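FORM 7B: Structural annotation worksheet

SECTION A. Query
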Amino acid sequence: MATLTDKKSIKPIKPATYTPAKLAEIIGAVRAFCVIHNTSLTYETGHQVFQKAVEERMPALRAALAGIQEIPLFFVEGQIRVGALPLEPGSGMFQKLSSEFESMGISSISIKPSVSADDIRKVMKLVVARADDIRSLGLQLLLAKEGVAGIVENKVRTQVVGKDSPEQGITDRSAGNPAVL
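SECTION B. Predicted structure
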């Protein structure tokens, strides 16, 4: 398992508690974010196919963000995590996004309830077209320059303290008691 810490204070990030239904919504939102990212690799952000992909997936993001302050995503060893818990381990789509973000030095982002379709477009344009700038300047500086407020970069560092098994991950088939992440 990876231990996630705030980069400034080196304190462990406190786990969040979500109901199984909220976790399923979060997974759906992350899946939507991955689909948008994959679409941005084929179509420019101004293309109607990309625009439609964003508009069709915004409801999943809004549903997941309802009633919570943010969706904090961590990119660790090719996995997307909420807290220390991997979401859909083994999902190629999740691994692709995580690996790409990690290669640019992005270890965590938070998606805020105020996120707009325009924020998503701008983030994808930055990720696709300005990867070198992200590596050298950091994502947050570029987000601020573009006026993106609904997605922020979190500065965290990870320490691997053991390996997760696929059974420890959360999938959209989760049920039972609320999970502590």
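SECTION C. Observations
The first strand starts at residue 2 and ends at 6. Confidence is low (pLDDT under 50) at residues 165-181.

SECTION D. Sign-off
Analyst initials: ____
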